[in-house]
């Protein structure tokens, strides 16, 4: 499973809006890896931001 899938799965499993720091805790990935994966997910519109600096899976 690649980093993007791990980030998306962590967001879906938690079910609440998460910031990048919390995603790092849940996945065990490095911060820069999480940031890159989240950027890709934003471009694909797989995640959205219900409030500033927090993201949630669609």
Give the helix proportion (percent range): 55-70%
Secondary structure class reads alpha+beta
- Beta strand %: 15-25%
SSE succession = HHHEE
Give the overall average pLDDT.
95
Low-pLDDT residue spans: none
Order of strands in the sheet with the most strands? 1-2
Instruction: Report the major sheet.
Output: 2 strands, antiparallel
Shape: globular
| Quantity of strands, as a count | 2
Compute the CA-based radius of gyration.
10 Å
Distance between the termini: 20 Å
Number of helices: 3
List the helices and strands and how they pair.
Layout: H1 3-14, H2 20-27, H3 31-43, E1 47-51, E2 54-57
Antiparallel strand pairs: 1-2
Question: What does this protein structure show overall?
Answer:
Helices cover 57% and strands 16% of the residues. The chain has 58 residues and is of the alpha+beta class. Strands 1-2 form a two-stranded antiparallel ribbon. Helix 1 packs across helix 3 (31-43) and helix 2 (20-27) packs across helix 3. The longest helix is centred in the middle third of the chain and has 13 residues, at 31-43.
């Amino acid at each position: 499973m690649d980093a993007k899938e791990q980030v998306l799965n962590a967001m879906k499993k938690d079910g609440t809006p998460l910031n990048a720091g919390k995603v790092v805790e849940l996945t065990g990935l490095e911060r820069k890896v999480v940031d890159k994966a989240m950027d890709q997910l934003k471009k694909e519109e797989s995640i959205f931001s219900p409030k500033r600096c927090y993201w949630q899976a669609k």
